[in-house]
Amino acid sequence: MNKDMIISETKSYLVKIFKDFPEEKFKVVKIILKGAKNNRKLQIFVDKEKGVTIDDCVMITRKLSKFIDDDENFDEHYILEVSSPGESGNKGKEA
What we know:
Blueprint: H1 3-19, E1 27-36, E2 39-47, H2 54-70, E3 78-83
Parallel strand pairs: 2-3
Antiparallel strand pairs: 1-2
Helix pairs in contact: 1-2
């Protein structure tokens, strides 16, 4: 699967995950895919009104990992990182 497809599929999985928590008002700020085949890092920056907690990141990582593991199109190894964009730079920019 090419880079754009991976990012698009990842975003659609995140939308599904966030629908289970509408009161949290999560949003995808940015998705970055780095590295070469079989050694890729998928970085996801998410935000919400009251700030993202470590528990939020763990929950999103677990749920997203399940989607990716079950999707035959994700046929490579990925290192998955979910975090808040923090105070600098990425805030407000949609993926």
